Amino acid sequence: MVVVVIMLKKRANLGIISLILEASSADAFETKKTTVIMYNTLLNHPVLKEYWMALTEEGLLVYDSATQTFKTTEKGLRFLQVFSELDRNQKNKNKNYPFSSL
Known about the structure:
Blueprint: H1 2-23, E1 32-33, H2 34-41, H3 45-57, E2 61-64, E3 69-72, H4 74-94
Antiparallel strand pairs: 1-3, 2-3
């Protein structure tokens, strides 16, 4: 049971990271102000600040202090592609289980 909870938490973290990167991507009007990202991800500022720090340290996100905006990097866009593909595969796999919709 503990392993399942840990896996769900990690999956939730990856989902949050994906939301932040999507909200900051070029498809989302080049760059995003912090308040817009907070609104799009439904997370408060202290929680987002932790994610922003980690994502910028990993090179998935960049912050422009002059315009106070975030932008997803090429590395971040690659992460989104892989995450989307894995998520799609997982959803297709779950369709084969009789109780997957519960």
